[in-house]
């Protein structure tokens, strides 16, 4: 497949971030997805988030599987590391890469077919192990590359473009992520960049498994009356639990907000997520309450978006395995081959 490069000439007055990059430096080739595809909006949100966080593109490793969603890493962060794996196997590739080099920022992009069907087991283990990565599922409820069959996340009772009614119960990846121990869980909508960008920013700063389920309507096969993942349906049934913004550690935190209207969620690295709560009784630190709330709103026919849960003291896979601070791929022979005395000592503990 041929990808069309974007012009390399930039306007001299384009805004630059602290690293001297413009937003164009975080883009990739011209997208070959359908015009109006929600996935392109997510790519644009990732570009903006990385630009605003002053992340050098070469510090990001982007990974994907198979499907329309898994094509999208081509269209953002063109100067980043990238790996397109086989169907449903992105999480295991990300786990191995993360263990070998903990210094990179890992961004996995997948789809509902890629993660909720053939890759469901891989998704589960990445969440329960706490792999330090941002895991974004671009969720449209259909298999777009194979002409619009229902995926495992399609709601029961939803209609296909041809009028077929889905009779199967949907898999809720947000609920699974909460149950499996993910320390940052959110849901958003590709058509709501004001919500999506700060969610991605906060996930990128989070130390641990950060999962974002992003509803992304398929304009070719799932954007019609009867679809529960169309632009119109999501806009009409969106129940946002909070309004979001991210304040980085280097920025001064002011007191311009009325008492009781803002909750500060401190991330593991010291950065702060500022949360304007629309529901005074919603606690983003309560995993059980988040699951209950999701079930209640689903029964009412509403789609809950926003930051649903965050652990203020997250723990990732490296902490669980007690790996060394030096990336494994940077260790020399002295560390990797400690000698027979060290081997005898280890063997003695196993007898």
Helix and strand topology:
Layout: H1 38-52, E1 60-64, H2 68-71, E2 81-84, H3 90-100, E3 105-111, H4 112-118, H5 120-129, E4 133-139, E5 142-143, E6 149-150, H6 173-180, E7 184-189, H7 193-205, E8 209-215, H8 231-237, E9 238-240, E10 242-247, E11 262-266, E12 272-277, H9 287-299, E13 303-310, H10 317-321, H11 333-336, H12 340-349
Parallel strand pairs: 1-2, 1-3, 3-4, 4-8, 7-8, 9-13
Antiparallel strand pairs: 5-6, 7-13, 10-12, 11-12
Provide a short characterization of the protein structure.
The chain is of the alpha/beta class. The chain has twelve helices and 13 strands.
Structural account:
This protein is an alpha/beta fold. The protein has one domain (23-321): Rossmann fold (3-Layer(aba) Sandwich), CATH 3.40.50.970. Helices cover 30% and strands 19% of the residues. Strands 2-1-3-4-8-7-13-9 form an 8-stranded mixed sheet, with helices on both faces. Strands 10-12-11 form a 3-stranded antiparallel sheet. Strands 5-6 form a two-stranded antiparallel ribbon. A hairpin with a 5-residue loop joins strand 11 (262-266) and strand 12 (272-277). It starts with 37 loop residues before the first helix and ends with a helix.
Features:
eight-stranded mixed beta sheet; 351 residues; Rossmann fold; globular; three-stranded antiparallel beta sheet; single chain; 12 helices; alpha/beta
Approximate helicity band? 25-40%
**Broad shape:** globular
- Count of helices? 12
Give average pLDDT, whole number. Answer: 85
Q: What's the β-strand tally?
A: 13
How large is the radius of gyration? 21 Å
The CATH top-level class label? Alpha Beta
* Total domains: 1
CATH H-level name... which superfamily?
A: Thiamin diphosphate (ThDP)-binding fold, Pyr/PP domains
Strand content is: 15-25%
Report the CATH topology name: Rossmann fold
Report the CATH architecture: 3-Layer(aba) Sandwich
Strand order of the largest sheet: 2-1-3-4-8-7-13-9
Structural class designation: alpha/beta
From N to C, what is the helix and strand string? HEHEHEHHEEEHEHEHEEEEHEHHH
């Amino acid at each position: 497949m041929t990808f069309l490069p974007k012009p390399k000439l930039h306007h001299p007055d384009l805004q630059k971030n602290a690293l001297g990059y413009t937003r164009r430096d975080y883009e990739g080739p011209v997208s070959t997805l359908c015009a109006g595809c929600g996935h392109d909006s997510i790519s644009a949100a990732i570009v903006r988030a990385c630009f605003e966080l002053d992340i050098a593109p070469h510090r990001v490793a982007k990974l994907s599987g198979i499907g329309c969603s898994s094509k999208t890493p081509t269209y953002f962060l063109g100067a980043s590391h990238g790996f397109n794996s086989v169907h449903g196997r992105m999480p295991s590739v990300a786990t191995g890469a993360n263990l070998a080099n903990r210094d990179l920022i890992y961004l996995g992009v997948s789809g509902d077919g890629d993660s909720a069907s053939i890759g469901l087991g891989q998704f589960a283990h990445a969440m329960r192990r706490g792999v330090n990565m941002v895991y974004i599922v671009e969720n449209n409820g259909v298999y777009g590359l194979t002409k619009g069959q229902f995926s495992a996340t399609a709601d029961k009772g939803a209609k296909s473009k041809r009028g077929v009614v889905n009779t199967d119960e949907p898999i809720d990846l947000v609920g699974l992520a909460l149950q499996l121990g993910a320390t940052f869980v959110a849901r958003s909508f590709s058509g709501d960049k004001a919500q999506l960008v700060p969610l991605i920013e906060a996930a990128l700063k989070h130390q641990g498994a950060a999962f974002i389920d992003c509803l992304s309507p398929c304009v070719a096969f799932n954007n019609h009356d009867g679809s529960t993942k169309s632009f119109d349906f999501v806009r009409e049934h969106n129940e946002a639990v909070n309004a979001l913004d991210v304040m980085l550690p280097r920025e001064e935190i002011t007191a311009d907000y009325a008492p009781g209207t803002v909750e500060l969620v401190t991330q593991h690295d010291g950065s702060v997520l500022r949360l304007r709560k629309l529901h005074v009784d919603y606690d983003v630190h309560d995993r059980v309450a988040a699951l209950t709330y999701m079930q209640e709103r689903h029964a009412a026919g509403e789609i809950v978006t926003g930051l649903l849960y965050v652990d203020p003291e997250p723990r990732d896979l490296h902490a669980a395995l007690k790996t060394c601070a030096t990336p494994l791929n940077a260790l020399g022979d002295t560390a990797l081959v400690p000698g027979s005395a060290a081997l005898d000592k280890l063997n003695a503990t196993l007898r």
